[in-house]
Amino acid sequence: MGVTKIGQKFITQVPPERMFKALILDSHNIVPKLMFSSIKSIEFVEGEGEVGSIKQINFTEASPFKYAKHRIDMLDKEALMCKYTLFEGDALMDKLEYVSYEVQFEGYGRGGCVCKLTSEYKAKEGIQIKEEDIEHGKDRAIGMYEVLEAYLMAHPKAYS
Q1: Which residue of 43, 112, 118, 120 has the fewest C-beta atoms within 10 A of its own C-beta?
Q2: Cβ partners under 8 Å of residue 61, min gap 6
Q3: Alpha-carbon distance 140 to 145, whole Å?
Q4: Are the CB atoms for 145 and 20 separated by under 8 Å?
Q5: How far is CA 89 from each of CA 33, 92, 125, rounded to the nearest angstrom?
């Protein structure tokens, strides 16, 4: 029953405030529109986006997963930082107790930002987490960031 912690960065030309608003504060609206082939909907099952709120992500039939639930553990709108935990759903693959995430957006370059994502994978008793399982999750996260960046670049007034 181990914990595996990984960090990754994604650099974008979009200002950090816009990325934070879209990806953290309004993900339940924008992500299903942009990732429609894999995400059917995101809805709050508890709360309205504040700390303690629970979001359920419902995946499309094309996805290998049905749903995932996240709890917002920390939200700092000033520091553009959020912590949340994936605690339920088949995305845990019967191997993980939870995955916790810390996301922070910082200014970078001339008007862009660096998105820093730290993920902590807590394996169930007797389970060894494979690197390819983690890599697949990392690739999906970066893919979502890239799609959102393209949308925000094409729509400069969105989330400004």
Answers
A1: 43
A2: none
A3: 9
A4: no
A5: 21, 6, 18
Percent of the chain with pLDDT over 70: 99
- pLDDT above 90: residue 60: yes
Q: How far is CA 138 from CA 27, 32, 117, 124, 143, in A?
A: 18, 19, 10, 20, 9
For the entire predicted model, the pTM comes to: 0.90
Statement: residue 1 has pLDDT above 60: no
| Nearest residue to 124 via CA among 111, 133, 115 | 133
Nearest to 70 by CA among 38, 28, 106, 30: 28
pLDDT at position 88 over 60:
yes
Q: How remote is the C-alpha of 140 from its chain's centroid?
A: 9
